[in-house]
Write a structure and sequence with these properties.
alpha+beta, 6 strands, SH3 type barrels, 2 domains, three-stranded antiparallel β-sheet, DUF5641 domain-containing protein, elongated
Length: 132
């Protein structure tokens, strides 16, 4: 009887000959949660009186169906000037934004803003509206 119960364990562990010690907990979880045809229950249901709650069943996938929206400041859509966020710097008392700069053109996710005789394409995430 014991050899009959150990056969699936032995088969699962021989598939992964190199790291069977790491695989053992997952294999035992699988054996304990699988439904037996004769008993119509799993080993966990017989021992604990209810089925085990597996990590895949803890979370529902409701968020997948929702379209992802980008957050845009409403003032950023209509402002004429913007501040541009600077990369982090270790200098003390330095302002985190440069500007204000005049907006030349708006794209769906980017703005074209003239900075130092150039017109770089700047992501909307780095911009803050300036009220002038």
């Amino acid at each position: 009887m014991v050899e009959h119960l150990q056969l699936p364990l032995k088969q699962a562990l021989t598939c992964r000959q190199t790291d069977w010690l790491d695989t053992l907990p997952l294999v035992l979880l699988g054996i304990r949660t699988v439904l037996h045809e004769v008993l119509d229950d799993s080993a966990a249901e017989l021992v604990y009186g209810s089925s085990l709650r597996l990590s895949g069943k803890l979370y529902e996938k409701k968020w997948i169906d929702r379209p992802q929206r980008t957050y845009i400041l409403k003032d950023l859509e209509t402002c004429s000037h913007v501040f541009v966020h600077r990369p982090p710097c270790k200098k003390a008392l330095r302002t985190p934004y440069e500007g204000p700069f005049k907006v030349v053109r708006r794209l769906p996710k980017d703005f074209i803003v003239p900075i130092k005789e150039q017109e770089p394409l700047i992501s909307m995430d780095r911009l803050k509206p300036a009220f002038i």
